[in-house]
Amino acid sequence: MGTARDRWLDEGIRVLAQEGAAGVRIDRIAARLGLSKGSFHHHFDGADGYKRDLLARFERLSIDQLDRAIVEAGPTSDARSILSRLTALIEPREAGLYRPELDVAVRAWSASDPEVRAAQARIDEARLAALQRVWRPYVTTDAEARTAALLPYLLAVGASVVSPPVAADELRGLFETLLPLVPEGPVDPDPAGR
What is 52-181's CATH topology? Predict the structure, then answer.
C-alpha cells in the first residue's frame, strides 16, 4: 500500500486525472484517503510543497515508464521491436503509457502555472530524447532522429488532447499503422563502403 506520503501523492495524481488541477485540494484528498490534515502537514511543506512533490511524482512517472519500456525491450532490440513494444503498452488502464486524462489535466494546468509549464517541458523533452535515441541508428542525422521521434510523440499528445480523447485501442491501431514505416535495420554510416 505504501507510506502515507506515497498515498497522498498517488491520490493527488488520481484526482488530477479525474478533476484537473482545481480538484487537487488538501481537504478533499484527505477525505478520500481517510487521513487527517495533520498527516498532510507531517509529510509536506504546505500546499506549495505538495504541488512541487506532486509534479515531481508526475514527472518521474511520465519519464520512467517510457524509459523502462525501452530498456525492457532489450539492448539488442531494433527500433521496430522497441516501438512495437511501446505500442503494445498502450492500454486503457491507469498504469499504461497512455493516460490522456492526466496528460490533458497537466497540460491545461501548465497554461496558467509557470512551475507546471516547466515540468511539462522537461517531460516532453525527456520523452522526445528517449525516442530520438531509439531512432538515431536508423537515420543519418540527429535532426532526422528528432523528426522521426516527433511523429509518434505528437500523435500520442494529439490523441490525448482531442475531445474526447482517442481510445487506447484506437491509438494502438494508429501506431500499428505507422510501424511498417520504421526501417528494418540501422543506417550504414559509410554507404560508400570505405
Answer: Tetracycline Repressor; domain 2 (1.10.357)
